[in-house]
């Protein structure tokens, strides 16, 4: 009987899980909607039910599940297998590994950006590269790091918080409690904040028409789509955003000197338009240090499957 792992991508709205083989193929999958108002016990029961269903499907197909990996949107303890804090779920100190111990499989938890990085390094945009940085540009900025083909997580899995290095001393407040974090300037939320600010200062901007004359309609597309049409105010937004994103990437180039930086999350849907600007910004600054190796900057390719695939590969495959 061939051994496989299950990867679980836990989100604020849903839990996506899949049976994944050693080559990164999702063989079977299921999804459950979450309701954090029902509390932690309901959350745990939902996950166990979901896993039992997949374990049985695998067994029916002559496959044996030997490990389950989780990508969690928050802070975990990878030694104890607990979710220590997940703001999107509203939970603290959830004993996930302990609750699932009777399934008889190995359990491992990591941050959701970590598992996405692992997936892109093994099977996606950074396949074949030994040293990789992944940035997910969404509501916040998630980060993952692979060094010498191994996922770097730090003590208890609480490292690699790339969104929380300070790039503006005494800057805007960050949800982590510090000021001026990279996340506050390079996330989709930051882009929307900046777009609204520049729109308020430039009533003539095309961005007003794009947003139907309401700041409430501003989203991550507003500035980019209007900048493509030549709108000056929109280009101020985009250029400022690229500056902050680029400076963060240059910091990571200097700290890690990776082969590649992978950009994921909603803003990465701008693809070449975003990529070309970021690459030029970094090239103009010698990738952080003169006469240093070039760092490739690419867009993530695995999309919503990265969480499941990466989580499954947190654990070794018994057949290998």
From TrEMBL:
It comes from the Bacteria. Transmembrane segments: none annotated. PANTHER family: BIFUNCTIONAL UDP-N-ACETYLGLUCOSAMINE 2-EPIMERASE_N-ACETYLMANNOSAMINE KINASE (PTHR18964:SF149), ROK (REPRESSOR, ORF, KINASE) FAMILY (PTHR18964). This is ROK family protein. It comes from Candidatus Onthovivens merdipullorum. Belongs to the ROK (NagC/XylR) family. InterPro entries: ATPase_NBD, ROK, ROK_cs.
């Amino acid at each position: 009987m061939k051994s496989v792992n299950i990867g679980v991508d836990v989100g604020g709205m849903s839990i996506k899980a899949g049976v994944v083989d050693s080559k990164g193929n999702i063989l079977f999958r299921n999804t459950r909607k979450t309701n954090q108002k029902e509390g932690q016990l309901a959350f745990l029961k939902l996950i166990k039910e979901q896993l039992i269903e997949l374990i049985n499907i695998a067994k029916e197909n002559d496959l044996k599940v030997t490990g389950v990996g989780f990508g969690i949107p928050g802070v975990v303890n990878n030694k104890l297998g607990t979710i220590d804090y997940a703001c999107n779920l509203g939970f603290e100190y959830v004993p996930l590994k302990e609750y699932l111990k009777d399934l008889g499989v190995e359990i491992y938890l990591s941050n959701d950006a970590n598992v996405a990085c692992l997936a892109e390094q093994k099977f996606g945009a950074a396949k074949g590269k030994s040293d990789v940085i992944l940035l997910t540009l969404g509501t916040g900025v998630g980060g993952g790091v692979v060094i010498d083909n191994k996922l770097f997580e730090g003590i208890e899995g609480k490292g690699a918080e790339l969104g929380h290095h300070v790039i503006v001393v005494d800057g805007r407040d960050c949800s982590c409690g510090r000021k001026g974090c990279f996340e506050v300037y390079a996330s989709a939320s930051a882009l929307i904040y900046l777009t609204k600010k520049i729109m308020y200062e430039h009533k003539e901007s095309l961005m007003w028409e794009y947003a139907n004359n309401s700041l409430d309609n501003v989203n991550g597309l507003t500035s980019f789509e209007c900048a493509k049409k030549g709108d000056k105010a929109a280009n101020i937004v985009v250029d400022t955003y690229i500056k902050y994103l680029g400076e963060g990437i240059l910091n990571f180039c200097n700290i890690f000197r990776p082969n590649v930086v992978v950009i994921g999350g909603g803003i990465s849907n701008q693809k070449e338009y975003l990529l070309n600007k970021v690459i030029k910004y970094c090239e103009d600054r010698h990738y952080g240090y003169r006469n240093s190796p070039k760092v490739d900057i690419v867009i993530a390719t695995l999309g919503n499957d990265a969480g499941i695939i990466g989580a499954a590969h947190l654990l070794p495959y018994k057949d290998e």
